[in-house]
Structure formats: C-alpha cells, structure tokens
Amino acid sequence: MNAASGTASAPFVRQLLGRSDYAIISEIVEPNTRVLDLGCGDGELLQWLAERKKCDARGIEISSSRVQRAIARGVSVYQGDIDEALLDYPDSAFDYIILSQTLQETKEPLKVLRQMLRVGRNAVVAFPNFGHWSVRLAHLFSGRAPKTKLFPYNWYDSPNIHYLTVHDFEELARQENWNVERRIFLAGKHTGTLWPNLMAETAVFLIRK
Amino acid sequence: MTVETKQVRFPSVSLDSGATIAPVDVAYQTYGQLNAQRSNAILVLHAFSGDAHAAGIDDSGKPGWWDNMIGPGKAFDTNIYYVICSNVLGGCRGTTGPSSINPETGRPYAMAFPVITIGDMARVQKMLIDHLGIERLLSVSGGSMGGMQALEWSVAYPDSVVSAIPIASTPRHSAQQIAFNEVGRQAIMADPDWENGEYYGKKPPARGLAVARMVGHITYMSDDSMREKFGRRLRDKEQFGYNFSSVDFEVESYLRYRGTQFVDRFDANSYLYITKAMDYFDVANGYGSLAAAMERSTARFLVISFTSDWLYPSYQSQEVVRALRSRNRDVAYCELASNYGHDAFLVDVGEQTELVRGFLASSLRERAHA
Q: B321-333 b/e with 16+ CB inside 10 Å = b?
C-alpha cells in the first residue's frame, strides 16, 4: 500500500472532504485503480481520488444540479438511477464500486449489492447503523419512529427506505458468501471495534465475491 | 475586430454513395490561437441551418450562431483553445453544395448534386483538419445535427478525437424526425417555383422553403416556450380579423417572419440535401450495433440533453450514454432543465457553459498527462 494512503492521511482527508466515511474510503482505495462512486453527489471524493491517487474516477448521481457541479469540476459523472445504472456495465469493469450512505435509499439493496460485485472487483459500502444506541433509545423512549442525528428525517419525508444494522449486513454477507476484507466502524471522528452494532454511527465494509 | 471566413479547395471527395465531388470548397472560421503542441484545437459543428460563422461579429455586424458559447472567457474559451468551425458539405454558405457550380456543366449542380451523408460531412471536415496540420482534436462538439457529426467523428476517426460533446442530439434519426423533415421537403418540392431544383437565376421556391422553415421552428420550441412567448396574443389588433388576408395571432406573425427571413439566407436545395443526410444518419451503420460503434471510440464524452426538447428527446442521448457505458467508455451525462425546447442548446447556455468549461479543462489536463 502506498504510504500516503495509510491511516495517517485520514485526518487530512477528513479536513478536505468534511466526511469521515470519505476519509476511510479514500484510505481503502488503492492508487491507479478504476473507481465508480454510486450516488457521488458533487464528485468531491472522485476528484480527490483522481488528483491524489491517480484513479480513473467516475460516478453516478440522480440530482441534475449535483451532476452539473461534478462535471464542472472535471469528474465524469452521469445522471441516472443507481438501481438501474449498473445493469449496463460489463463484468469487472471497475476495481472499486463505492456506495456511501446510499444503500438504505435504494429500492432493491440486495440487487444493487450483487450488481456492485459483478461490475466491481471490490465493493465499498458505507451506511448509517440503525443499531446505534441513540436510535434504540429514541425509539424506546419516544415510542415513535426514531429521529436522531444519524436519521434526522420525519418518517414521511425520509429518503431512507431500507434500514439496516451492522449485524444485518454481516449476516447478509455470510448468506451471500461475500468475503468481508475490511470492516471499519466510525463514531464521530473516532474509529473503534468495541460493540460496533451498538456504538458505530457509520459502518464501512470492503467486500469481495 | 470582425471575423473572416476563409476558404480552402480540395481536389475531390469520395462519398458514401460511391459518387465523387470534385473539387470541394470548404468555408471555415477560426478563433483563438493554435498552441505550439497543436493540442488545443476544437472543432465546433453546426446544426442544420448554421454556417461557418460560429462566433464573433462578421463584416455585416452579425454575431455567430454560438457566440454566447465561444470567445474569451466563454465555455469554449478562445484564450485557451483554438476553435474551428466550417460550413457543412451540401451547405450554401461557402462550402460546396447544390447551389455551387458543377464544373461539368458550368451551371449550378441543383439536383445533379450527389446525395450526401453525415459521414461525408465529417470526411470533408477531416480534410480541413489535416490541411490545418492538426493531428488530434481536443474536442468535437455541436448541438442537434452538430451532435450527430460529433458522434460520427468519434467513431470514424477515433485516433483524431480526444473528447466529444454531442448536445441535444441522437445516434440515429427516428421516424418522427424523418417525418418532420419529409414535410419540409414536400413543402419545397410542391412549390411550382422549385422546378425540379432548376430555379437558380430565377425566382426561388420561397413559399415552400418558408413553410418548411415554419414547421422547423415549431419543432425547435416547446409548448411552454410558445405559451410564454406568444400565448394567444393577437398581433397589432384588439379583435379577430375574421379574414385570412391578415395575421391574427402573434405566433402566426412570428412563424411567417422566420419563414421569409430564412429564404434570404438559405438555399432550398440545400434544405433537401441536408435533411436527407440527417435522415440517413445512424452512427451504428456498418458496425452491427450502437454499442459496437461506440466501442470504436476512445474519446471521453460529455453528453447533454434538455428536459423540454421533444425533437431530440433525452432518451436518444441516453441511448448513446448506455452504449458507451456497456463498453466501459468514459462518459459524463446531464439532462439540463430548460423550457426552451430544442433551441435550448443555442439560447439557454448558462448551465451548459459550466459543464463544457469543466469538461474541456479536464480533457486538456488528461491529454497533457497522457
């Protein structure tokens, strides 16, 4: 692994991109690889990967205004729906397919994950952990659909349609025979491994078939 | 400073149909400076009724058809890029077409002009680019028929194209697009003044050509833009005229104005030939499938379509995008929101500018590293 891409770069990346899951992902992705980011937003992570790690970095994004900003910064992004867009690609077209904070918004998450592992040699999946203690407490004490820092929406306007926890994802990976190459759990700015299903706000998995 | 149209003559060109045109004149304009590495050249391709005058002001004081996109600090920034635009083969603005003199007869070709294709247009443009000493174009770009030429270039001359920007365009003409073109052609040919195309030096088929143009203008706008621009407003009157001798509605007046104005600057036979070339266009021709055709290209693509464009709807641009994706080619795509219909690529250029600017800058960077 390139020295610059070790954990030492994580705080720097976080400063640059403002998102700790991006920091972890940019650390996972090896230099000079082909990367596809699903739901890439403004293309910030892709631009960073292209410039710093010389990746062939591309993205898919549904929002026209975000696609515009991404293309304006020179990233090859196209407007489309994640649930369908992957179907067109040939097998193993990319080294990494990234799905950051979007799995819970897809219509058919399992199909998307299977497609990711068809089109990419590796899949990097980051998602907010529905098992986090704050979610459990919010539900227990309010008796209503949990509304927390991680899941800030009202039940009627939330883009999240498939909630999952760290344990749920691990179980799915076993069931589908995916190899979990790495698992990283984030809480605030810290990474940790203690009781991740309870303590992790965001989970990042690197999986392979 | 006014821009100047230059002309170059080539001995001949062989066409897709098997025919030959000899000689071939090509009218073109250039903007900006070619750099020492000859790596900053961009070929801009005009739409159906356009010409070589894409930017700047000509000696009659008229701005170019894409002057809002080409110039210092604009999307195609002439402080950075060397931009070339030529009139298409079959045109009537300086490049050889049906109104040019047939050397065999000493009279205009008229209908003796061979039928041409988008591929033939690109072939002539390639001769021009070779003549200018440019091996690889940083980009080929255009809207509508210009987008078809950009696609053709990327597939026919893959080694000569670093990037391509087809806008509001299609990989092939659809039945609806052919149908509108056929209405235009029939309007011209039904005009008694057309005389099987032999009207040069006489009265041109002005009424037929004007009707053809009126149909065209309807397809370039959208329901929204027409409602906004004209609504049901009457022209210079408070009440209906209850006759057919005067114009009632603003929209009628606009179409008539556009129709008659077109007659002054466009040749009816060029209308026939160029629309035919568009109708024949299918970039997959000869390659088996669209994906197989696009696989030939090594260019990066920026594909743009507009929400209200019903003449070249987004699904056609998306077909190109999907074909490129299926062969893992580098493609960016955005459907821009606009009410202007097909005209959007000419008039609604704010967001388009940001896309093109960013895309070209990254293409230039990539080329420098390659």
A: bbbbbbbbbbbbb
